[in-house]
Input
Amino acid sequence: MAKLETRYEVGSVEELRQKGRIIATVKGMELGIFAVGDDYYAWRNLCPHGGAPVCEGVVCGTRLPSLVYEYKYGKDREILRCPWHGWEFDLLTGQHLVNDKVKLRGYGVVEEDGQLYVVV
Ligand code: FES
Output
C-alpha cells in the first residue's frame, strides 16, 4: 500500500533568509525550517532530551575532533544548539553530535517558485 504524502506551505525562501529560521505548525506539529547553503531542512521543534523547543536554539558551529591542546572550529551555521541544556544537533542530518542513538525527527522540504513546502 502506497504511503500518501502531502505538502504544506510553510513560508518563503525570502522570509527564511531574513529570519534565519521559520517556526511553522504542520498537522499539529511545530517544525523549524532551516537553510544550510542552498538546501532546506525541517526538524520537529521538540528536543529528544527534555522536550525543549530545540528549533529556537542558536545556530552555530562546533568544535571538531582534534589533537590535545588543539582547537578546531568547523561546521559553521550547520549546528543547532538546544536552548535548555546545550545538546548539539547537525542541521543536515538531525543527528546528535555525540550520541548516535539520538536524532531529531525530520521532514523533507521542497522549494518551488520561492515558496517552501514541508512534505509530511
Ligand atoms: S531539553 Fe534539549 S538539551 Fe535538554
Summary: The pocket of FE2/S2 (inorganic) cluster is lined by residues 47, 49-50, 52, 54, 82, 84-85, 87 (CB under 6 Å). The chain has one domain: 7-119. The longest strand covers residues 72-81. The helical segments are 13-19.
